[in-house]
Write a structure and sequence with these properties.
Two copies of one chain form a homodimer. Chain A is mainly α. The first copy, chain A, has seven helices and three strands. Helix content of chain A is 67%, strand content 8%. The interface between A and B is large, with 59 and 59 residues. Chain A binds a DNA duplex through α4 and α5.
DNA sequence: CGCCGATTGTTGACACGTCAACCTCGCTCG
DNA sequence: CGAGCGAGGTTGACGTGTCAACAATCGGCG
């Protein structure tokens, strides 16, 4: 959302990188805003809520160790802890201590959590599709996708350890 | 930062839009993290702090009506209000009521704010350049830039009014 | 067995952004 | 003139994310 780059772009040092970053901030902020607003409007969930619920939805038995969740989402441990505490308080998930390792805990959706997870998956799919297709035409989308795939591969090869 | 798309991308409905969004989230989160961490490490400023200070740095007399600042940054009014309150408390800026319109106020940097603004501009320029150039090669960068320019133009033409 | 380091999670303090409610001021129109 | 509308700004509550400090547990090694 913030637009540092937009301002830097007007500087004398008009670098391609700075202009690109400025525009990326604007575009990303706009798309993320649209998508998250649609999600909140239609499910009452934040993007973080949906990330957790959909991760659980994707597992075979619909439960995960908090540790797996953390790795899958690439979140900091305290972030996940806060998020799970809030979601437990709202009745979306429940935590049970893991028998094999008492440090860890098993995360499972409640029935309401499950229903919201499915709604979130649908809503997000639609919102992402309409937002992106509203902003880019088919060729641009394909171009963006291949470029991003290369960047992701590059980042993965230089992966930094999680804190 | 959040990775909803990464999870959605593994769904049966493997849309180009969803995959692209997933990757965009990963890439954007990574780059933003690098840049903002560098900024904080070397100046103690957040990206929002830097956005305000650099906006002030770019004006001819280094002061702005809060209203101009809000439009330039495309921020919500309460966001700017909170941000300015925090920055005033830290001695980065000062606010004086505007003589022509008592509702508005003039924002000006303190000397410390000015110095940090210049540091922030330097650090951000370098961090953006190294982060982007580390992730994309020159051709990709140019390609990204032209694509984003088209998207930004498209968004501007469908501009929604600020709340 | 017992200790120590590594891993896992929790907590509290803080910064940030959004929403809704509110205040204040300027302006228009009856 | 004055009532009310609208724009600009503030505030408080809340959800969110990060950092640092802490607690609990596991695992290996003497």
């Amino acid at each position: 959302m913030s637009t540092i780059g937009a301002i830097l772009a007007s500087m004398d040092r008009c670098d391609a990188a700075i202009i690109a970053w400025s525009r990326l901030q604007v575009v990303y902020g706009h798309l993320a805003g649209q998508i998250n607003r649609a999600l909140y409007r239609e499910t009452g969930l934040s993007d973080a809520d949906a990330a957790v619920l959909i991760a659980l939805l994707e597992t075979p038995n619909e439960s995960l160790h908090s540790f797996e969740l953390r790795c899958g989402l690439a979140w900091e441990k305290s972030r996940l802890s806060h998020q799970l505490r809030r979601m437990e308080a709202r009745g979306l998930i429940e935590r049970t201590t893991c028998p094999e390792d008492n440090r860890s805990s098993l995360i499972r959706m409640t029935p309401e959590g499950f229903e919201l997870a499915e709604r979130a998956r649908t809503v997000l799919g639609r919102a992402i599709r309409t937002s992106l297709e509203g902003a880019l035409d088919g060729d641009q989308l394909a171009e963006l996708e291949t470029m991003l795939a290369a960047v992701v591969a590059h980042l993965d090869s230089h992966a930094e350890p999680l804190s």
